[in-house]
Amino acid sequence: MSSPYTIQVLSIFTEYFESPLATSITGKAIEKGLFAVEPVDIRAFATDKHKTTDDVPFGGGAGMVMKPEPLVAALEFAHARQPDALRILLTPQGEPFHQALARELSQAPGLILVCGRYEGVDERVIDGWIDREISIGDYVLTGGEPAALILIDAITRLLPGVLGNVCSIDEESFSKPSLEYPHYTRPREFRGRSVPDVLLSGNHKLIADWRRAQSEKRTRERRPDLLDNHRDSND
Ligand code: 9D3
Fold first, then answer.
1. 59: exposed, middle or buried (C-beta count within 10 Å: 0-12, 13-18, 19+)?
2. Where in the chain is the domain with CATH 3.40.1280.10?
3. Nearest atom (ligand 1) to Cα of 116
4. 3-state SS, residue 94
5. How confident is the chain (235 residues) per 10-residue block, as mean pLDDT?
6. 10 Å Cβ neighbour count for 207?
7. Which atom of ligand 1 is nearest to the CA of 97?
8. How far is the CA of 220 from the centre of ligand 1 (A)?
9. How confident is the model at residue 235, as a pLDDT?
10. Separation of 146 CA from ligand 1 center, angstroms?
11. What's the confidence (pLDDT) of residue 56?
12. Spatial separation of the C-alpha atoms in residues 190 and 77, rounded to whole Å
């Protein structure tokens, strides 16, 4: 394949991505050349002998700030390799990530993901070299790396050929967002717990009705927010 969907990931911990990306569906898809993830080590662009990537905040306060020079050098390196790619900073201040955004980003010409560390990134870097800021939710991480991994996973599974089962994607896109019904496999009885009789009935209409009811009940109980806002979230 000439140029698959490519994601460059800028980080001071590029080894963070190795094992997850080599594993399972993602690993297979990369092996097949369906997409590529190219780590870019921000520290390699630091010019002092200690390879410094952080500095104290102007105005004082706790913690350190990611200094602009090495980060911008890394961004310019990545941008030169992929001038059309969307440059995204993973940050708690970003717009919340969701399924519709994953779908949108899977249509981009490529991505440059920037993983912040320390208390944050010098704001001038964001102003001049970042297109979009994304958060993965309202909880505190140690840095942008786990967030980048989540974006990569959610986005690349939407690329052509990555999921073997094409129809499961179709199902997601056209159904209204709701939680799944409970799943069971063999044995019919496990440690005194039985599979619901309806699933053994062979009556496909009855099974479909039961699953729909279970799905609605779960969504109502656990995620009522999915029912009252009809945002395009797909899944
Ligand atoms: C003193 C305030 N800081 C600690 C509570 C703010 C802070 C800075 C840096 C909190 C977390 C981080 C590191 N997090 C990310 O880089 C990050 C993140 C997250 O923490 N939650 C959800 N999405 C994301 S995307 C990147």
1. exposed
2. 6-156
3. 16
4. strand
5. 92 98 97 98 98 98 98 99 98 98 98 96 98 98 98 98 74 73 98 98 98 98 88 50
6. 16
7. 23
8. 31
9. 47
10. 11
11. 98
12. 56
DSSP 171-200: HHHHSPS-PPPP---S-SEETTEEPPGGGG
Nearest ligand 1 atom, CA 94: 25
Cα gap 212→233, rounded to integer Å: 19
If one residue of 65, 140, 152 were mutated to test the ligand 1 pocket, choosing by the most ligand atoms within 8 A of its CB, it would be 140
Instruction: Classify domain 6-156 by CATH number.
Output: 3.40.1280.10
Cβ contact 152:37 at 8 Å = yes
In angstroms, the CA 151 to CA 98 distance is 9
Instruction: Select from 1.10.10.10, 1.10.1270.20, 3.40.50.80, 3.30.390.50 the CATH code of 176-234.
Output: 1.10.1270.20
Distant-in-sequence, close-in-space partners of 56: CB < 8 Å, separation ≥ 6: 64, 65
